[in-house]
């Protein structure tokens, strides 16, 4: 069932992408020879008004094939016979429709589940943020000039911009008034860490963040897992966990953790890691959604779309900079695994909760596909747009054979990347 759900999500996203190409091609009187969902041999098709509509065997992929797209054809309906900006609109429409789909899904989420406002929580007096003037209930508006709309945006910002010794400018709101302050991170003394974040306000001791490279992550524990006991001491809430760690500071001794992952109760023994460097803000913030009005749901839907686009772009920069490896990229098989994890971790909350989490994942995938397709790389829509922009500047097209050769090389490299990604997916599954 989860494989079917993953295929359905991918199929809808790809269908919407190809539909964008299709509708703009029809709008510009370009002959579409075939509109298909899937790849490989046809398993069903029919012809209407000169266009063959097909469903193909492999459910990953799709196409909108246009007359004269890759060769010279003496026909008024040929792609290359149309003006440069008409062709630009057809190519750009695929990614644009993915952004529209992501926006619609964002509205479903914000209108149903609400918004995670970036509200400051649990400010301790010995922290850098307390000394800078921040208090419980303040709403973060900007970090170093970057606009913040959601609690998860703070997660994203600090992941790609780890806290170091540099001061951080913070704009926040309190009682309807806006304030600016500068937070000076504190140098941490040597200390032991497990690599988790949680809230003492939650009814269950649910993990909000599990940091890569630290003990909980290495033990296979993930965000969303619920801690039920620590060293055989029952833990029923976030408050219980906070009180436990306050009464039992971490040392180098192993800690036995019992937790709920999906429907299963598991036990792991983790050894706290001694950290001898690093800086701390002491900033804890809200990651739970609050219901909003329909008007605000529309407003925050656009912000959700922007967040997901920024997430994709930041991840690409992270990968290109060498901070992440190709092993961390997931493809279609990895997407099935992620869908399986989403269903497993949320099914106890009911069908509605599972649905919203799947919608949230589909929103990210759709925005991700839109961004990736606009990258100025051969064989992608973005690469074709580059050739069209060059044509608009030169006022004459680049020879078809030269453009085709560039795209062929790009497609070959893309296929090699896909093989690597699929291999990584299977390696992660089977170890």
Automatic annotation (TrEMBL):
Annotated transmembrane regions: 6-25, 88-109, 404-423
Keywords on record: Hydrolase, Membrane, Metal-binding, Metalloprotease, Protease, Transmembrane, Transmembrane helix, Zinc
PDZ domain mapped to chain residues: 103-176, 192-263
Keyword Zinc applies: yes
InterPro entries, per the entry: PDZ, PDZ_6, PDZ_sf, Pept_M50_Zn, Peptidase_M50
Membrane topology: Multi-pass membrane protein
Main location: membrane
Enzyme class name: hydrolase
Cofactor entry: Zn(2+)
Keyword Transmembrane: yes
GO terms for biological process, alphabetical: proteolysis
Enzyme Commission (EC) number: 3.4.24.-
Alphabetized GO MF terms: metal ion binding; metalloendopeptidase activity
Localization, UniProt: Membrane
GO cellular component labels: membrane
PANTHER family tied to this protein: MEMBRANE METALLOPROTEASE ARASP2, CHLOROPLASTIC-RELATED (PTHR42837:SF2), REGULATOR OF SIGMA-E PROTEASE RSEP (PTHR42837)
Family membership noted in the UniProt record: Belongs to the peptidase M50B family.
Protein name listed in UniProt: Zinc metalloprotease
């Amino acid at each position: 069932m989860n494989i079917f759900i993953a295929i359905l999500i991918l199929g809808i996203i790809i269908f919407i992408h190809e539909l964008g190409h299709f509708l703009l091609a029809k709008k510009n009187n370009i002959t579409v020879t075939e509109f298909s969902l899937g790849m490989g041999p046809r398993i069903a098709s029919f012809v209407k008004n000169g266009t063959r509509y097909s469903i193909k065997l492999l459910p990953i992929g799709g196409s909108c094939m246009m007359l004269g797209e890759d060769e010279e054809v003496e026909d008024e309906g040929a792609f290359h016979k149309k003006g440069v900006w008409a062709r630009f609109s057809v190519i750009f429409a695929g990614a644009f429709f993915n952004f529209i789909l992501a926006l619609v899904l964002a509205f479903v989420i914000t209108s149903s589940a609400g918004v995670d406002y970036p509200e400051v929580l649990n400010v301790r007096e010995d922290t850098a943020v307390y000394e800078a003037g921040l208090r419980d209930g303040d709403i973060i508006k900007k970090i170093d000039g970057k606009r913040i709309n959601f609690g998860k945006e703070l997660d994203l910002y600090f992941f790609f911009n780890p806290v170091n010794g540099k001061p951080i400018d913070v704009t926040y709101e309190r009682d309807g008034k806006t304030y600016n302050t500068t937070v000076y991170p504190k140098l941490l003394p040597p200390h032991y860490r497990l690599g988790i974040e949680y809230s003492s306000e939650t009814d269950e001791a649910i993990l909000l963040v599990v940091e890569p490279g630290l003990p909980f992550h290495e033990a296979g524990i993930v965000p969303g897992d619920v801690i039920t006991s620590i060293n055989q001491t029952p833990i029923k809430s976030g408050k219980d966990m906070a009180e436990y760690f306050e009464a039992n500071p971490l040392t180098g001794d192993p800690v036995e953790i019992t937790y709920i992952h999906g429907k299963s109760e598991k036990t792991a023994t983790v050894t706290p890691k001694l950290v001898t460097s690093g800086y701390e803000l002491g900033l804890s913030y809200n990651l739970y959604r609050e219901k909003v009005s329909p008007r605000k749901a529309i407003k925050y839907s656009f912000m959700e779309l922007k967040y997901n686009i920024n997430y994709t772009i930041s991840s690409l920069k992270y990968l290109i900079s060498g901070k992440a490896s190709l092993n961390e990229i997931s493809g279609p098989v990895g997407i099935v695994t992620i869908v399986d994890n989403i269903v497993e971790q949320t099914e106890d909350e009911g069908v509605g909760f599972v649905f919203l989490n799947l919608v949230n994942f589909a929103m990210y995938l759709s925005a991700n596909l839109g961004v990736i397709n606009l990258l100025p790389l051969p064989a992608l829509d973005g690469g074709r747009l580059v050739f069209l922009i060059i044509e608009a500047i030169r006022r004459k097209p680049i020879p078809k054979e030269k453009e085709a050769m560039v795209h062929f090389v790009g497609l070959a490299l893309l296929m090699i990347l896909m093989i690597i990604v699929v291999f990584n997916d299977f390696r992660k599954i089977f170890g």
